[in-house]
Automatic annotation (TrEMBL):
Keywords: 2Fe-2S, Iron, Iron-sulfur, Metal-binding, Oxidoreductase. The keyword Ribosomal protein does not apply. It comes from Haliea salexigens. This is Rieske domain-containing protein. Its cofactor is Fe cation. GO terms for molecular function: 2 iron, 2 sulfur cluster binding; metal ion binding; oxidoreductase activity. GO terms for biological process: cholesterol metabolic process. PROSITE patterns: RIESKE. Residues 18-124 form the Rieske domain. SUPFAM superfamilies: Bet v1-like, ISP domain. It comes from the Bacteria.
Protein backbone atom coordinates (compact mmCIF):
# COMPACT_ATOMS: atom_id res chain seq x y z
CA UNK A 1 0.00 0.00 0.00
CA UNK A 2 1.43 3.37 -1.02
CA UNK A 3 2.02 6.06 1.58
CA UNK A 4 0.94 8.67 -0.96
CA UNK A 5 -2.62 9.93 -1.18
CA UNK A 6 -2.39 9.98 -4.97
CA UNK A 7 -0.38 7.77 -7.30
CA UNK A 8 0.74 10.85 -9.26
CA UNK A 9 2.67 12.05 -6.21
CA UNK A 10 4.91 8.97 -6.09
CA UNK A 11 8.49 9.88 -7.14
CA UNK A 12 9.57 8.31 -10.40
CA UNK A 13 6.03 7.60 -11.54
CA UNK A 14 4.93 9.18 -14.80
CA UNK A 15 1.56 9.43 -16.54
CA UNK A 16 0.33 6.93 -19.10
CA UNK A 17 -0.48 8.78 -22.30
CA UNK A 18 0.81 10.88 -25.19
CA UNK A 19 3.57 13.39 -24.46
CA UNK A 20 4.97 15.87 -27.00
CA UNK A 21 8.76 15.73 -27.42
CA UNK A 22 9.36 17.93 -30.49
CA UNK A 23 7.74 19.86 -33.31
CA UNK A 24 7.89 18.42 -36.79
CA UNK A 25 10.01 21.20 -38.23
CA UNK A 26 12.69 20.52 -35.60
CA UNK A 27 13.47 17.12 -37.18
CA UNK A 28 14.57 17.03 -40.81
CA UNK A 29 14.86 13.71 -42.71
CA UNK A 30 18.11 12.04 -41.69
CA UNK A 31 18.33 13.97 -38.42
CA UNK A 32 19.05 12.38 -35.02
CA UNK A 33 18.42 14.08 -31.67
CA UNK A 34 19.15 13.24 -28.06
CA UNK A 35 16.20 13.37 -25.66
CA UNK A 36 15.78 12.74 -21.97
CA UNK A 37 12.26 12.22 -20.64
CA UNK A 38 10.72 10.11 -17.87
CA UNK A 39 14.21 9.80 -16.39
CA UNK A 40 15.37 7.85 -19.49
CA UNK A 41 17.88 8.68 -22.24
CA UNK A 42 16.16 8.50 -25.63
CA UNK A 43 17.01 9.12 -29.26
CA UNK A 44 14.66 10.71 -31.79
CA UNK A 45 15.33 10.28 -35.50
CA UNK A 46 13.65 10.68 -38.87
CA UNK A 47 14.44 8.08 -41.51
CA UNK A 48 14.82 8.66 -45.23
CA UNK A 49 11.10 8.06 -45.85
CA UNK A 50 10.25 10.85 -43.38
CA UNK A 51 8.88 8.70 -40.55
CA UNK A 52 9.84 9.84 -37.03
CA UNK A 53 10.85 7.27 -34.41
CA UNK A 54 12.00 7.17 -30.78
CA UNK A 55 14.24 4.48 -29.28
CA UNK A 56 15.97 3.96 -25.97
CA UNK A 57 19.31 5.67 -26.44
CA UNK A 58 21.86 3.02 -25.51
CA UNK A 59 22.74 0.08 -27.73
CA UNK A 60 22.03 -3.29 -26.06
CA UNK A 61 25.34 -4.61 -27.41
CA UNK A 62 27.99 -2.66 -25.45
CA UNK A 63 26.02 0.41 -24.40
CA UNK A 64 27.01 3.10 -26.88
CA UNK A 65 24.69 6.05 -27.28
CA UNK A 66 22.95 5.80 -30.66
CA UNK A 67 23.24 9.57 -31.20
CA UNK A 68 27.01 9.62 -30.63
CA UNK A 69 28.96 11.15 -33.50
CA UNK A 70 25.70 12.73 -34.67
CA UNK A 71 23.95 9.39 -35.24
CA UNK A 72 23.90 7.29 -38.39
CA UNK A 73 20.70 6.85 -40.40
CA UNK A 74 20.48 3.78 -42.64
CA UNK A 75 17.30 4.03 -44.68
CA UNK A 76 14.58 4.15 -42.04
CA UNK A 77 16.77 2.55 -39.38
CA UNK A 78 19.46 3.80 -37.00
CA UNK A 79 22.93 2.25 -36.79
CA UNK A 80 25.05 2.26 -33.66
CA UNK A 81 28.22 4.31 -34.30
CA UNK A 82 30.31 1.87 -32.22
CA UNK A 83 29.84 -1.45 -34.08
CA UNK A 84 27.11 -0.78 -36.63
CA UNK A 85 24.29 -2.76 -35.02
CA UNK A 86 21.22 -1.41 -36.80
CA UNK A 87 17.75 -0.91 -35.34
CA UNK A 88 14.39 -0.31 -37.00
CA UNK A 89 11.89 2.27 -35.77
CA UNK A 90 10.22 -0.31 -33.48
CA UNK A 91 13.56 -1.23 -31.87
CA UNK A 92 14.11 -4.51 -33.71
CA UNK A 93 17.73 -5.28 -34.51
CA UNK A 94 17.74 -5.76 -38.31
CA UNK A 95 21.46 -5.95 -39.06
CA UNK A 96 24.83 -6.67 -37.48
CA UNK A 97 27.27 -6.04 -40.34
CA UNK A 98 30.02 -8.40 -39.15
CA UNK A 99 27.77 -11.26 -37.92
CA UNK A 100 26.46 -14.24 -39.88
CA UNK A 101 23.25 -14.18 -37.87
CA UNK A 102 21.51 -11.89 -35.36
CA UNK A 103 21.38 -13.48 -31.89
CA UNK A 104 17.78 -14.16 -30.92
CA UNK A 105 18.30 -12.30 -27.65
CA UNK A 106 19.33 -9.19 -29.59
CA UNK A 107 16.33 -8.99 -31.89
CA UNK A 108 14.02 -7.20 -29.46
CA UNK A 109 16.49 -6.01 -26.84
CA UNK A 110 16.03 -2.31 -27.61
CA UNK A 111 12.79 -0.53 -26.77
CA UNK A 112 11.02 1.35 -29.51
CA UNK A 113 8.46 3.87 -28.31
CA UNK A 114 5.10 4.34 -30.07
CA UNK A 115 5.17 7.69 -31.89
CA UNK A 116 2.40 9.82 -33.33
CA UNK A 117 3.13 12.77 -35.59
CA UNK A 118 0.06 14.95 -35.88
CA UNK A 119 -0.74 18.67 -36.16
CA UNK A 120 2.93 19.49 -36.67
CA UNK A 121 4.15 17.92 -33.44
CA UNK A 122 5.79 14.61 -32.50
CA UNK A 123 4.40 12.80 -29.47
CA UNK A 124 5.45 9.54 -27.85
CA UNK A 125 3.31 7.13 -25.88
CA UNK A 126 4.45 6.40 -22.33
CA UNK A 127 2.92 3.42 -20.55
CA UNK A 128 4.66 1.53 -17.72
CA UNK A 129 2.38 -1.43 -18.47
CA UNK A 130 3.38 -1.54 -22.12
CA UNK A 131 -0.22 -1.26 -23.32
CA UNK A 132 -1.32 -0.25 -26.81
CA UNK A 133 -1.60 3.51 -27.45
CA UNK A 134 -4.99 5.21 -27.41
CA UNK A 135 -6.02 7.51 -30.25
CA UNK A 136 -7.37 10.52 -28.36
CA UNK A 137 -5.45 13.47 -29.84
CA UNK A 138 -7.76 15.40 -32.23
CA UNK A 139 -6.66 16.85 -35.54
CA UNK A 140 -6.35 20.64 -35.61
CA UNK A 141 -7.52 21.20 -39.17
CA UNK A 142 -6.34 24.82 -39.30
CA UNK A 143 -2.69 23.94 -38.71
CA UNK A 144 -0.52 24.49 -41.77
CA UNK A 145 -3.12 26.40 -43.78
CA UNK A 146 -1.07 29.47 -44.62
CA UNK A 147 -3.57 30.57 -47.24
CA UNK A 148 -6.05 31.10 -44.39
CA UNK A 149 -3.54 33.08 -42.35
CA UNK A 150 -2.55 30.20 -40.04
CA UNK A 151 0.80 28.72 -41.00
CA UNK A 152 3.09 26.75 -38.67
CA UNK A 153 3.55 26.85 -34.91
CA UNK A 154 5.45 29.61 -33.18
CA UNK A 155 6.62 28.03 -29.96
CA UNK A 156 8.61 28.76 -26.83
CA UNK A 157 9.88 25.98 -24.60
CA UNK A 158 11.50 26.11 -21.18
CA UNK A 159 12.68 23.53 -18.68
CA UNK A 160 11.32 24.30 -15.24
CA UNK A 161 11.27 22.81 -11.76
CA UNK A 162 7.63 21.83 -11.28
CA UNK A 163 5.37 18.83 -10.89
CA UNK A 164 2.97 17.85 -13.70
CA UNK A 165 0.12 17.85 -11.17
CA UNK A 166 0.74 21.54 -10.46
CA UNK A 167 0.55 22.42 -14.15
CA UNK A 168 -2.65 20.58 -14.96
CA UNK A 169 -4.58 22.02 -11.99
CA UNK A 170 -4.66 25.39 -13.74
CA UNK A 171 -7.49 24.05 -15.92
CA UNK A 172 -9.90 24.21 -12.95
CA UNK A 173 -8.33 26.97 -10.83
CA UNK A 174 -10.75 29.85 -11.31
CA UNK A 175 -9.53 31.79 -8.27
CA UNK A 176 -5.94 32.48 -9.38
CA UNK A 177 -6.75 34.68 -12.41
CA UNK A 178 -7.14 38.03 -10.58
CA UNK A 179 -4.00 37.41 -8.52
CA UNK A 180 -1.59 35.91 -11.06
CA UNK A 181 -2.85 36.87 -14.54
CA UNK A 182 -4.39 40.29 -13.93
CA UNK A 183 -7.82 39.26 -15.13
CA UNK A 184 -11.37 39.31 -13.84
CA UNK A 185 -13.29 36.11 -14.57
CA UNK A 186 -16.58 36.88 -16.30
CA UNK A 187 -17.51 33.31 -17.25
CA UNK A 188 -15.98 29.99 -16.21
CA UNK A 189 -17.06 26.38 -16.63
CA UNK A 190 -15.37 22.98 -16.42
CA UNK A 191 -16.49 19.87 -18.26
CA UNK A 192 -15.08 16.40 -17.61
CA UNK A 193 -14.91 13.56 -20.13
CA UNK A 194 -13.26 10.16 -20.02
CA UNK A 195 -9.85 11.37 -21.25
CA UNK A 196 -10.57 15.10 -21.41
CA UNK A 197 -11.14 18.02 -19.11
CA UNK A 198 -12.25 21.37 -20.56
CA UNK A 199 -12.30 24.95 -19.37
CA UNK A 200 -14.60 27.41 -21.11
CA UNK A 201 -13.86 30.91 -19.90
CA UNK A 202 -14.15 34.61 -20.53
CA UNK A 203 -11.55 36.67 -18.65
CA UNK A 204 -11.02 40.43 -18.98
CA UNK A 205 -7.98 42.41 -17.88
CA UNK A 206 -8.85 44.94 -15.16
CA UNK A 207 -6.93 47.60 -13.26
CA UNK A 208 -8.08 46.16 -9.92
CA UNK A 209 -6.53 42.73 -10.54
CA UNK A 210 -2.92 41.87 -9.74
CA UNK A 211 -0.27 40.26 -11.95
CA UNK A 212 2.80 38.16 -11.30
CA UNK A 213 5.63 39.41 -13.51
CA UNK A 214 8.14 36.76 -14.63
CA UNK A 215 11.77 37.95 -14.78
CA UNK A 216 13.65 38.39 -18.04
CA UNK A 217 10.70 39.06 -20.35
CA UNK A 218 11.57 40.74 -23.68
CA UNK A 219 8.61 43.10 -23.27
CA UNK A 220 6.92 45.18 -20.56
CA UNK A 221 4.08 42.99 -19.30
CA UNK A 222 2.64 45.72 -17.06
CA UNK A 223 2.54 48.19 -19.96
CA UNK A 224 0.84 45.60 -22.13
CA UNK A 225 -1.72 44.89 -19.43
CA UNK A 226 -2.42 48.61 -18.99
CA UNK A 227 -2.97 48.88 -22.74
CA UNK A 228 -5.41 45.97 -22.60
CA UNK A 229 -7.27 47.57 -19.71
CA UNK A 230 -7.59 50.85 -21.64
CA UNK A 231 -8.54 49.09 -24.86
CA UNK A 232 -10.50 46.03 -23.67
CA UNK A 233 -11.24 43.18 -26.03
CA UNK A 234 -14.17 40.80 -26.02
CA UNK A 235 -12.40 37.44 -25.89
CA UNK A 236 -13.37 33.90 -25.03
CA UNK A 237 -11.46 30.65 -24.91
CA UNK A 238 -12.04 26.90 -24.87
CA UNK A 239 -9.13 24.92 -23.38
CA UNK A 240 -9.11 21.13 -23.27
CA UNK A 241 -6.58 18.69 -21.91
CA UNK A 242 -6.47 15.60 -24.08
CA UNK A 243 -4.88 13.10 -21.74
CA UNK A 244 -2.50 14.05 -18.93
CA UNK A 245 -0.13 16.53 -20.56
CA UNK A 246 -1.34 18.05 -23.87
CA UNK A 247 -3.75 20.96 -23.90
CA UNK A 248 -5.44 22.44 -26.98
CA UNK A 249 -6.80 25.97 -26.59
CA UNK A 250 -8.94 27.84 -29.10
CA UNK A 251 -9.67 31.52 -28.59
CA UNK A 252 -11.18 34.45 -30.45
CA UNK A 253 -10.77 38.13 -29.62
CA UNK A 254 -12.58 41.18 -30.96
CA UNK A 255 -12.31 44.86 -30.24
CA UNK A 256 -8.68 45.07 -29.08
CA UNK A 257 -5.70 46.28 -31.06
CA UNK A 258 -6.08 43.31 -33.46
CA UNK A 259 -9.08 41.04 -34.06
CA UNK A 260 -7.79 37.48 -34.18
CA UNK A 261 -8.45 33.80 -33.68
CA UNK A 262 -5.84 31.41 -32.39
CA UNK A 263 -5.04 27.80 -31.59
CA UNK A 264 -2.57 27.02 -28.83
CA UNK A 265 -0.93 23.73 -28.01
CA UNK A 266 0.43 23.80 -24.48
CA UNK A 267 2.28 20.79 -23.15
CA UNK A 268 4.32 19.72 -20.15
CA UNK A 269 6.48 16.62 -20.62
CA UNK A 270 8.23 15.17 -17.54
CA UNK A 271 12.01 15.17 -17.76
CA UNK A 272 12.50 13.49 -14.39
CA UNK A 273 10.84 13.57 -10.96
CA UNK A 274 11.66 17.26 -10.48
CA UNK A 275 11.53 18.93 -13.90
CA UNK A 276 9.22 19.27 -16.88
CA UNK A 277 9.61 20.79 -20.31
CA UNK A 278 6.89 23.43 -20.54
CA UNK A 279 5.95 24.70 -23.98
CA UNK A 280 3.40 27.02 -25.54
CA UNK A 281 2.87 26.92 -29.30
CA UNK A 282 0.45 29.11 -31.23
CA UNK A 283 -0.94 29.64 -34.67
CA UNK A 284 -2.86 32.87 -35.09
CA UNK A 285 -4.97 34.30 -37.89
CA UNK A 286 -7.22 37.28 -38.46
CA UNK A 287 -10.93 36.70 -37.99
CA UNK A 288 -11.34 37.42 -41.69
CA UNK A 289 -8.94 34.63 -42.65
CA UNK A 290 -6.10 37.00 -43.48
CA UNK A 291 -2.70 36.89 -41.71
CA UNK A 292 -2.28 39.13 -38.70
CA UNK A 293 0.68 41.58 -38.67
CA UNK A 294 3.97 39.71 -38.25
CA UNK A 295 4.98 41.79 -35.21
CA UNK A 296 1.69 40.95 -33.49
CA UNK A 297 2.02 37.23 -34.28
CA UNK A 298 5.51 37.00 -32.79
CA UNK A 299 4.61 39.07 -29.73
CA UNK A 300 1.49 36.96 -29.24
CA UNK A 301 3.56 33.76 -29.18
CA UNK A 302 5.97 35.21 -26.63
CA UNK A 303 3.04 36.43 -24.53
CA UNK A 304 1.43 32.99 -24.57
CA UNK A 305 4.47 31.42 -22.97
CA UNK A 306 4.91 34.38 -20.62
CA UNK A 307 1.39 33.70 -19.29
CA UNK A 308 2.62 30.29 -18.15
CA UNK A 309 5.71 32.05 -16.80
CA UNK A 310 3.44 33.87 -14.36
CA UNK A 311 2.38 30.49 -12.96
CA UNK A 312 5.97 29.22 -12.95
CA UNK A 313 6.87 31.95 -10.47
CA UNK A 314 4.37 30.36 -8.08
CA UNK A 315 5.07 26.70 -8.90
CA UNK A 316 8.82 26.92 -8.43
CA UNK A 317 8.66 27.29 -4.65
CA UNK A 318 5.18 26.08 -3.67
CA UNK A 319 4.46 22.78 -1.92
CA UNK A 320 1.72 20.41 -3.04
CA UNK A 321 -1.15 20.01 -0.58
CA UNK A 322 -2.53 16.50 -1.07
CA UNK A 323 -5.42 17.32 1.28
CA UNK A 324 -6.01 21.05 0.70
CA UNK A 325 -8.38 23.26 2.64
CA UNK A 326 -10.80 24.49 -0.02
CA UNK A 327 -13.63 27.01 -0.02
CA UNK A 328 -16.79 27.39 -2.09
CA UNK A 329 -15.09 29.81 -4.50
CA UNK A 330 -12.47 27.31 -5.59
CA UNK A 331 -12.87 25.31 -8.76
CA UNK A 332 -13.36 21.51 -8.80
CA UNK A 333 -9.80 20.78 -7.72
CA UNK A 334 -10.48 17.45 -6.02
CA UNK A 335 -12.57 16.27 -8.98
CA UNK A 336 -9.69 17.15 -11.28
CA UNK A 337 -7.30 15.15 -9.11
CA UNK A 338 -9.54 12.09 -9.25
CA UNK A 339 -9.74 12.43 -13.04
CA UNK A 340 -5.96 12.89 -13.33
CA UNK A 341 -5.22 9.87 -11.14
CA UNK A 342 -6.45 7.51 -13.87
CA UNK A 343 -3.29 8.11 -15.90
CA UNK A 344 -1.10 6.82 -13.07
CA UNK A 345 -3.10 3.79 -11.96
CA UNK A 346 -3.06 0.37 -13.64
CA UNK A 347 -5.78 0.15 -16.25
CA UNK A 348 -7.88 -2.25 -14.19
CA UNK A 349 -7.82 0.19 -11.27
CA UNK A 350 -8.25 3.47 -13.07
CA UNK A 351 -10.45 6.01 -11.31
CA UNK A 352 -13.39 7.55 -13.14
CA UNK A 353 -14.25 11.26 -12.97
Amino acid sequence: MSDYRYAFLEPGRFARGWHIVAFSRELEPGAVQRLHYFGVDLVLFRGESGVAAVLDAHCPHLGAHLASDGGRIVGDALACPFHGWTFAADGECVDIPYATRIPERARHALRGWPVQERNGFIALWHDPEGGAPEDYLPVIKEWGHGEQGWGDWRFHRSRIRAQPCDVIENIVDIAHFPHVHGGEVREFENRFGERTVTQVSRVQQTAAARSVIPPGLPFDMEAMRAQNVDNPADAWGDATYHGPSIMYYYTESRGGAVDYRSWWVNYHTPVNSEEVDLCSAVIVSGLDGEPVPEEFAEQYAIGAHAAFGQDVEIWKDKVYRADPILCDGDGPINKLRRWYEQFYLPRNGAAQP
